[in-house]
Design goal:
This protein is of the alpha/beta class. It has helices at about 15-35, 55-60, 85-95, 110-115, 125-140, 175-185, 200-215; strands at about 5, 10, 40, 50, 70-75, 100-105, 145, 150-155, 170-175, 190, 215-225, 230-240, 250-255, 260-265, 265-275, 280-285, 290-295, 295-300. It folds into two domains: about 5-170, TIM Barrel; about 220-300, no CATH class. It has a six-stranded parallel beta sheet with strand order 1-3-5-6-9-10. The protein starts with a strand and ends with a strand. Mean pLDDT is about 85; it is low at about 240-260 and about 290-303.
């Protein structure tokens, strides 16, 4: 289990925002020193009577204080932006944090934000899906040509790619049933409505898991663990392998991974392979102190 801290970035009008940002920096340092795994910030525009720093710049300011913690947008108002803006901004933050961004996104619900950005609120679902698909292409393809309902790109190239490949994990906020199914189809994780009852969450997570199975998506997380139990590196991604007839997950890799990591402790490290939240393999890795280069191989996994 991992623990994250949601930061309060909404300041009342009378408060000094410079002082409040200093307080956030101190809070993040304390969270880092006490073993938290991530920090999260939210997103709104024109939030009268509150002052609210925007999420990507504030995460950029907090990044040097976070150690190995991940930086999460919970959530970023995806729908009222454009694919180029989103892809460029998130890639930049992922570079600044050396690959520690988790991109949590949502539709948005405040009419005044849609109006201010010149976006029709009634188009938010189709615009959200199209924007996310185009942003993914900008992160992963050299040249993008797109003619869609909401966006047009002609020979668009994003030279600055994210550190995390194919892109930072995308978590999609969900409150109603269609949103959980949408999160399974287009995202890498789901952000659950904090106001929902436990019974509702249990039912909707069942919908989410079924939608994952139908889409043939399986979540793979690789974590490098040192001999003292600390995590040196972790990465997650989607693996579309389809549900085999037996219901088992069978993968013949070979999964060859090469790492350049600063190794603080010599000895037997391990690479944990987790699929759909279940540990499938622990691959031993023998390391020396310094910048060791290793290529662990997983020949097959059967669950």
């Amino acid at each position: 289990m991992k623990f994250g801290l949601i930061l309060n970035t909404q300041f009342v009008a009378e408060e000094d925002p410079v002082v409040k940002v200093r307080d956030l920096v101190e809070q993040v340092r304390l969270a880092r020193d006490h073993g938290f795994d991530s920090i999260c910030v939210s997103h709104h525009y024109l939030l009268t009577p509150f002052q609210m720093p925007q999420p990507l710049p504030i995460l950029g300011r907090l990044a040097p204080e976070t150690g190995r913690m991940r930086l999460v947008t919970n959530i970023f108002l995806l729908t009222i932006h454009t694919p180029a803006y989103v892809a460029e901004q998130v890639a930049t933050l992922d570079v600044l944090t050396e690959g520690r961004v988790t991109f949590g996104v949502g539709l948005g619900y405040r009419p005044e934000e849609f109006e201010a950005m010149g976006v029709e609120m009634k188009t938010r679902v189709s615009r959200f899906v199209e924007l996310l698909e185009v942003a993914k292409r900008l992160w992963t393809e050299d040249v993008v040509i797109h003619r869609g309902r909401h966006f047009t790109l002609t020979n668009a190239s994003l030279t600055l790619k994210p550190v995390q490949r194919p892109h930072p994990p995308i978590w999609i906020a969900a409150s109603n049933d269609p949103a959980f199914e949408r999160a399974a189809r287009y995202g890498d994780g789901v952000l659950i409505n904090p106001h929902a009852s436990l019974k509702t969450v249990e039912r909707q997570m069942g919908l989410y898991r079924r939608a994952l199975d139908e889409a043939g998506h399986h979540r793979v997380t690789l974590t490098w663990v040192s001999p003292d139990g600390s995590e040196l590196w972790t990465s997650s991604g989607d693996l579309e392998i389809g549900p085999p007839p037996t219901g088992a997950i069978e993968m013949d890799f070979p999964l060859i991974l090469t790492f350049d990591l600063p190794i603080p402790i010599a000895g037997t490290h391990r690479l944990n392979v987790v699929i759909d939240d279940e540990l499938q393999a622990e691959v031993p890795i023998h390391a020396r102190v310094g910048g060791a280069r290793m290529a662990p191989a997983v020949s097959s996994l059967v669950s």
